[in-house]
Design brief:
Elements: E1 7-12, H1 18-30, E2 34-39, H2 49-56, H3 67-72, H4 75-80, E3 84-90, H5 92-100, H6 106-113, E4 118-122, H7 126-130, H8 132-143, E5 147-148, E6 152-155, E7 162-166, H9 170-181, E8 192-197, E9 202-203, E10 209-210, H10 217-228, E11 232-237, E12 249-252, H11 256-264, E13 271-274, E14 281-283, E15 304-306, H12 310-315, E16 323-330, H13 334-345, E17 349-354, E18 366-367, E19 369-373, E20 376-379, E21 383-384, H14 385-402
Parallel strand pairs: 1-2, 1-3, 3-4, 4-5, 8-11, 8-13, 11-12, 13-16, 16-17
Antiparallel strand pairs: 6-7, 9-10, 14-15, 17-19, 18-21, 19-20
The structure holds cytidine-5'-triphosphate (CTP).
């Protein structure tokens, strides 16, 4: 059977379409999946936990603060012990909570805690689906890697309005589940990857350091996107304020030399994506004690020494990963400099971007990149950093499959 042994967590939120979730449970179980249901409070106004429990042959989880439920598996295990999370129907309210990371009930807490793929089947009134807030939330969720099925066009159950908002039919949802779980959506399963991200801090003395404007957003998003495609990802991050991405092992370092050690100690891997804005120089001999001002004396000179080039080291290593990808932060001659870096650093691909201050790319949330490789140059449009990450992860999967 197509879904034999697959463990599915089904979250039912409030909406008239919840009646179709009963049939969805049957269809999933017919194909060999086990279904563990969570119902929101609103869902219980439309279908009963009794019916959901009977069809799923499982306990129905309804309450974040139920001592019994928490002792049984607990919301963190509920979030993790499955192959896929389905939200059907996904109400406008639950989508809004997901997009904003709210976690004030069991369904939203589990969605925030999960590191599994999530498929949502939105269902709502067409006006609610078209509303600016829902549009924004849907975009955010897509950029976060949430998979969508529907909503479909057609008649609404509760009114004679037509438009986009009807929940996908159970068999359409099952087909989406099969596509997601048959491996094609996880083309990097079994592959290992290292991603570097963020700036490095190079100490001058115990309280001062040299740094740069990198936020780590792009590198962290790439690590998360590779993990969503099934790769086993280690992220080596310099000091950043963005959170560690879900589903990724994050190693925190400060200096370029520490970053190099962390990367080399994890070779061999299949994929290396070096996104960090590694400081080119460190202070040749940083002081053990805070350097004091000396009235009347000239300021202390800063003697710099060159840092190791992590990308170049990996690109020429005898345990070189199959695919080595670097970034090129440029303020001029982007293509020419990008090509030169491809060559010099032994990379298969360079993601070149213009980091001139007026672009707002360094430290910002958007990016406009050119992909430079032996195959030529591909120019991508202005995209959110999450979308750049998603596309790059797909491209990596394709290149690896072709290699
Ligand atoms: N990089 C690295 N280690 C360094 C410097 C850079 O791994 N010490 C990597 C970056 O992670 C990025 C690529 O090299 O993937 C290019 O970084 P960039 O700063 O654009 O290039 P530089 O080597 O610093 O070259 P230049 O200063 O000439 O622009």
């Amino acid at each position: 059977m197509a879904l034999t042994g697959k463990r599915i967590l089904l979250i039912i939120s409030g909406g008239i379409a919840a009646y179709k979730s009963l049939d969805l449970i049957r269809r999933l179980r017919e194909r060999g999946a086990s279904v563990r249901p969570i119902m929101t409070r609103a869902a219980q106004e439309f279908v009963t936990p009794l019916a959901v429990g009977a069809l799923s042959a499982s306990h129905v989880y309804v309450d974040l603060f139920s001592r019994e439920d928490e002792q049984d598996v607990g919301h963190i295990r509920l979030a993790r012990e499955n192959d896929l999370v389905i939200v059907a129907p996904a109400s406008a309210d639950l989508m809004a909570k997901m997009a904003h990371g709210l976690a004030d009930d069991l369904a939203s807490a589990v969605l925030l805690a999960t590191d599994r793929p999530v498929l949502i089947a939105p269902a709502m009134n067409p006006k609610m689906w078209a509303a600016a807030a829902t549009r924004r939330n849907a975009e955010t969720l897509k950029a976060d890697g949430i998979h969508f099925i529907g909503p479909m066009a057609g008649e609404m159950a509760e009114s004679n309005e037509a438009g986009i908002g009807r929940m996908a039919e159970p068999l359409e949802i099952v087909a989406a589940v099969e596509r997601l779980l048959d491996g094609t959506a996880r083309p990097l399963a079994g592959k290992t990857a290292i991603v570097t991200s963020g700036p490095t801090h190079e100490p001058i003395d115990p309280v001062r350091y040299i740094a740069n404007r990198s936020s780590g957003r792009q590198g962290h998003a790439i690590a998360a996107a590779l993990a969503r495609l099934g790769a086993d990802v280690t992220l080596v991050s310099g000091p950043v304020t963005v959170p560690d991405p879900a589903g990724v092992k994050t190693v925190h370092v400060e200096r370029a030399e520490e970053m190099l050690d962390a990367v080399l100690s994890r070779l061999p891997v299949d994929i290396a994506v070096m996104v960090a804005a590694v400081a080119d120089w460190r202070v040749a001999s940083s002081a053990d004690q805070k350097i004091k001002k000396r009235p009347g004396e000239a300021p202390p000179p800063l003697q710099l020494a060159e840092n190791p080039d992590i990308l170049k080291t990996v690109g020429h290593h005898d345990k070189r990963p199959k695919l080595v990808i670097g970034f090129a932060a440029e303020t001029q001659d982007i293509e020419k400099n990008g090509r030169a870096k491809l060559e010099r650093k032994g990379a298969d691909m360079i993601v070149a971007n213009d980091v001139s201050p007026e672009t707002g790319i360094m430290g910002g949330s958007r990016n406009r990149v050119k992909i430079i490789s032996a195959q030529g140059i591909d120019e991508w449009p202005d995209l959110g950093k999450d979308e750049v990450a998603e596309r790059l992860a797909q491209l990596i999967a394709e290149r690896l499959a072709g290699a």
